[in-house]
Design goal:
Layout lengths: L4 H11 L16 E4 L4 E4 L5 E3 L5 E4 L18 E5 L5 E4 L16 E5 L9 E2 L6 H13 L16 E37 L2 E31 L6 H7 L8 E2 L9 E2 L6 H23 L4 E30 L2 E8 L5 E3 L5 H22 L2
Parallel strand pairs: 4-13, 8-13, 9-12
Antiparallel strand pairs: 1-2, 2-3, 5-6, 5-7, 8-11, 9-10, 9-13, 13-14, 14-15
């Protein structure tokens, strides 16, 4: 028994021992115990060891298909606008000109020749949302903003530019072996002493403990059209907020699809894209394996992945870009070219926020004053 119950609870949580779980030794029948140093069940009586699979890392059973024979360029004569701020390279068709970047609004742009050695897209999703719908969606988005400057409504007439953004997709099969300590919670009644009105009294409390048991398993999963963005001008957080693209709508690439539209050359190459894709696969598999661990909690999770049948393609996906200015600063808004979803950034109105805080404070003070009567 101790005088400080809080200190006791902390000690029990971190160092308290759990009741022994029986794992009989096949050699002598004595109880085995988990030895974390050896990653095995150990018998203290006869010295036997029962190995528990523990491995981590990733093994690629087959490399990515070589890209040496893939078609190059976009298949039509284009110029490119190189942005000196975000780094994007956006195509210009015919006599088309521009003095700013369609992604970030920067005026630091320079016309260049298109990269004819870049891998040609195998497919694209045709733009499915028209310009009128984009402007209407933008106006609704601005009208729905809270705690934003009223002057933003004047930005409803900004120019919308439809762009085919570059993406890589990856298909893969993954076999994952996992091992971990599975934790099962249980409760015990603990007695302690404390002082009440200067007197020592004895009380009881319920304390949660955890029983740990070794666990392991395996699973097989398939990844289909895992998207990795290859744009230099699209902010990753806005792309994620846009939501998924329906890649079942992909059609074989033809240069005609770019007529009247802009396209961005990829800045993240195939090797770099697969590195990101592999890391995402590993994160997903770790989460899935964690969900397979039995019990109430787990610790020491290790995952060993074997990735095979990796296939890739380069595709273009439709996005509308709008850039408006407020207080001399540009703000980006993106519209999903399939669903029409609008996402973007907007400045805060600190005056509106301050007024809201004052009103809320006054309301709370009024309620407390009323309750005290």
């Amino acid at each position: 028994m101790v005088d400080d119950p809080q200190e006791e609870i902390l000690e029990e949580t971190l160092t308290g021992e759990s009741p022994r779980e029986d794992f009989p030794c096949d050699t002598c029948g004595a109880d085995l115990r988990w030895d974390p140093d050896d990653d095995a069940l150990a018998c203290d009586h006869c010295g036997a060891r029962v190995a528990v699979p523990r491995a981590e890392g990733t093994v690629l059973e087959r490399p990515l298909a070589a890209a040496a024979d893939a078609a190059r360029g976009l298949g039509l004569a284009l110029r490119v606008l190189q942005c000196g701020t975000c780094g994007a390279r956006l195509t210009l068709e015919g006599a088309d000109t521009s003095t700013s970047c369609a992604w970030c609004g920067s005026s630091q742009v320079l016309a260049q020749e298109a990269n004819r050695n870049a891998l040609r897209p195998e497919s694209l999703v045709p733009m499915d949302v028209g310009e009128d719908a984009v402007h209407e969606g933008f106006r609704r988005w601005v009208a729905g903003l809270w705690f934003r400057p009223n002057g933003l409504k004047k930005a409803a007439a900004v120019e919308a530019v439809g762009i085919y953004a570059p993406f890589w997709t990856f298909d893969a099969r993954v076999h994952s072996d996992w091992s971990a300590d599975a934790g099962y919670h249980y409760w015990v009644t603990q007695t302690y002493t404390t002082r009440v009105n200067g007197k020592r009294v004895t009380r009881t409390r319920r304390v949660r403990k955890t029983r740990w048991r070794p666990a392991w398993g395996e699973r097989d999963d398939v990844f289909d059209d895992l998207l990795v963005g290859a744009s230099a001008g699209l902010p990753a957080d806005l792309v994620e907020a846009l939501g998924d693209f329906d890649t079942s709508a992909l059609v074989p690439y033809r240069p005609e699809y770019l007529a009247g539209w802009r396209a961005e050359e990829y800045r993240l190459d195939l090797e770099g894209a697969w590195e990101q894709g592999r890391e995402r696969i590993e994160r997903v598999q770790r989460e899935r394996c964690a969900g397979d661990v039995p019990g109430d909690t787990y610790r020491g999770l290790r995952v060993h992945n074997r990735i095979s049948d990796v296939r890739w393609k380069h595709c273009l996906l439709p996005v509308w870009s709008l850039v408006y200015r407020h207080g001399g600063k540009p703000y980006r808004v993106l519209v999903h070219g399939q669903t029409g979803r609008v996402v973007g950034r907007a400045p805060w109105s600190w005056v509106k926020i301050l007024v809201a805080v004052l009103v809320a404070s006054f309301a709370i003070a009024t309620v407390f004053a009323y309750l005290r009567r």
